[in-house]
Design brief:
The chain is built from eight helices and eleven strands. By secondary structure, it is α/β, with parallel strands linked by helices. It has two domains: 116 residues, D-Maltodextrin-Binding Protein, domain 2; 88 residues, Periplasmic binding protein-like II (D-Maltodextrin-Binding Protein, domain 2), CATH 3.40.190. The strands form two sheets. A six-stranded mixed β-sheet has the order 2-3-1-4-11-5, sandwiched between helices. β2 and β3 form a beta hairpin. The two termini are 22 Å apart. The structure holds 1-O-pyrophosphono-5-O-phosphono-alpha-D-ribofuranose. The site of 1-O-pyrophosphono-5-O-phosphono-alpha-D-ribofuranose has 12 residues, from β9 and α6.
Length: 212
């Protein structure tokens, strides 16, 4: 590997970062020395991989366009992005689900609202698809975080958001109504790089596969 051009590997900053680096380390890949650095591209110890520390929502974009060869992101972010990449491996962390939730005092009716329900979400595409497939003409309101505020502040009837332990829902008087997507971390690869750098990339995939 050391004679080749370094692979560029986009990692999601935040929740998935530590577990991504742990997994890659266990797989025997050379990881960056100082992940707390403000530098955005970090070379691995042996120089074989450049790690790009990216905002999670940008990882599929970098990988689709080939700005990075490989990436790790959540399946939620990947599906919402609609980006076209290879997905050779699901990874054993980042487990949660994307669900429809609503106020606990009206749990059985929301998917049958006669009028246009308002849905607060960070996932407008997945939310719109879910309701459209059920013949519900939803008004999707995009928020960038703390989506649970939607019903609490009467901005929205329902939310579509990630649920992990369920404690954020409970703390805000909401209940889960329907799961839209089971989520976990996923390894993604640029489609051209998958062919052109196949030796490096297949080697990487096999090493990761061996420890999951
Ligand atoms: C996520 C998600 C929920 C919460 C779910 O939010 O959007 O709000 O975690 O976790 P729980 O089921 O274990 O309570 P995050 O903390 O990423 O912040 P955000 O809402 O600002 O996006």
């Amino acid at each position: 590997m050391s004679n080749s051009v370094p692979l560029l590997f986009a990692l999601s900053k935040g929740r998935l970062a530590d577990e991504s680096l742990n997994l890659l380390q266990r797989a025997g890949l050379s990881v960056p020395v100082d992940t707390n650095s403000r530098k955005l591209v970090l070379p691995s110890n042996d120089g074989s991989i450049g790690f790009v520390m990216a905002k999670p929502w940008d990882v599929p974009t970098f990988v689709e366009y080939g700005a990075a060869d490989v990436g790790i992101c959540g399946l939620d972010v990947l599906r919402e992005s609609g980006r076209r990449v290879h997905e050779p491996l699901r990874l054993p962390f980042g487990h949660c689900r994307l669900s429809v939730a609503g106020p606990k005092d009206r749990p059985d009716t929301p998917l049958r609202y006669a009028s246009q329900p308002r849905i607060a979400t960070k996932y407008p595409r997945l939310a719109q698809d879910f309701f459209r497939q059920r013949g519900v003409n939803a008004e999707v309101i995009e928020l960038s975080g703390s989506v649970e505020l939607g019903p609490v502040l009467d901005l929205a009837d329902l939310i579509v958001d990630l649920v992990e332990t369920g404690s954020t829902l409970r703390a805000n008087g909401l209940v889960e109504i329907r799961t839209i997507l089971e989520v976990q971390a996923v390894l993604i690869v640029n489609r051209a790089a998958y062919q052109l750098k196949s030796e490096q990339i297949q080697g990487l995939i096999e090493k990761v596969r061996a420890v999951i």
